[in-house]
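User: Hi! I have a protein structure encoded as tokens and I'd like to know what sequence might fold into it. I'm fairly new to this, so please keep things simple.
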């Protein structure tokens, strides 16, 4: 679990977005199998929307509230969410590529079985988010709060968490490869066995020692 990586961190994921003047304002309802390219939304409220198998490409979504709704198998490619709120949308088996989620809230989001690649979460409050069975590859969480986030059975590859705070995270049966937890405040409620694929620093090991001892059934005298 401990160790120092000499490899230089890969660049932060970043969407390929046109300039603001080249983005058309959203002027149509979001719907199943809809195609949305080079558009921007500001201050919209999408409540109980059904948008399965839709595709968002090169879109800027600012101050958008997504409440509930069905978004399974939707594709988000080169998309940036900023100052937005994701409140319990269903996003199972959705596909994310070269995206950013900056500031805002993700609460009760069902991201299970999603394919999340090259995505940057920055200053986002993730509360009771479900990543069970998801695949996260080249993902960075920067200065995020992860409260009761469930990574059970997920596969995390080259994922970093600089400046993050974990509260009651669950990594049960997760598979970690090149996961860097250094610089994060760690509190896990389950899944200590999965952490063998992670890197932490000495200070974090000391903080985790009581929980690890309890997990291993060790008595400290």
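Assistant: Happy to help. Inverse folding works backwards from shape to sequence: for each of the 221 positions I chose a residue that suits the local structure. Here it is:
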């Amino acid at each position: 679990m401990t160790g120092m990586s000499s490899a230089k961190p890969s660049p932060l994921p970043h969407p390929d977005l046109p300039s603001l003047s080249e983005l058309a304002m959203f002027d149509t309802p979001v719907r199943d199998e809809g195609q949305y390219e080079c558009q921007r939304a500001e201050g919209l409220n999408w409540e109980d929307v059904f948008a399965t198998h839709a595709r968002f490409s090169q879109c800027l979504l600012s101050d958008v509230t997504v409440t509930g709704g069905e978004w399974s198998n939707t594709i988000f490619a080169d998309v940036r969410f900023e100052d937005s709120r994701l409140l319990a949308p269903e996003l199972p088996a959705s596909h994310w590529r070269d995206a950013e989620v900056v500031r805002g809230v993700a609460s009760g989001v069902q991201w299970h079985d999603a394919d999340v690649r090259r995505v940057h979460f920055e200053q986002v409050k993730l509360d009771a988010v479900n990543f069970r069975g998801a695949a996260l590859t080249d993902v960075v969480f920067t200065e995020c709060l992860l409260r009761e986030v469930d990574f059970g059975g997920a596969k995390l590859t080259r994922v970093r968490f600089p400046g993050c705070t974990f509260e009651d995270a669950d990594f049960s049966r997760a598979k970690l490869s090149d996961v860097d937890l250094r610089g994060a405040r760690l509190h896990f409620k389950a899944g200590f066995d999965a952490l063998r694929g992670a890197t932490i620093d000495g200070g974090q090991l000391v903080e985790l020692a009581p929980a690890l001892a309890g997990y291993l059934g060790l008595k400290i005298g």
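A useful reference point when you look it over: The first helix runs from residue 202 to 216. Feel free to ask if any position seems puzzling.
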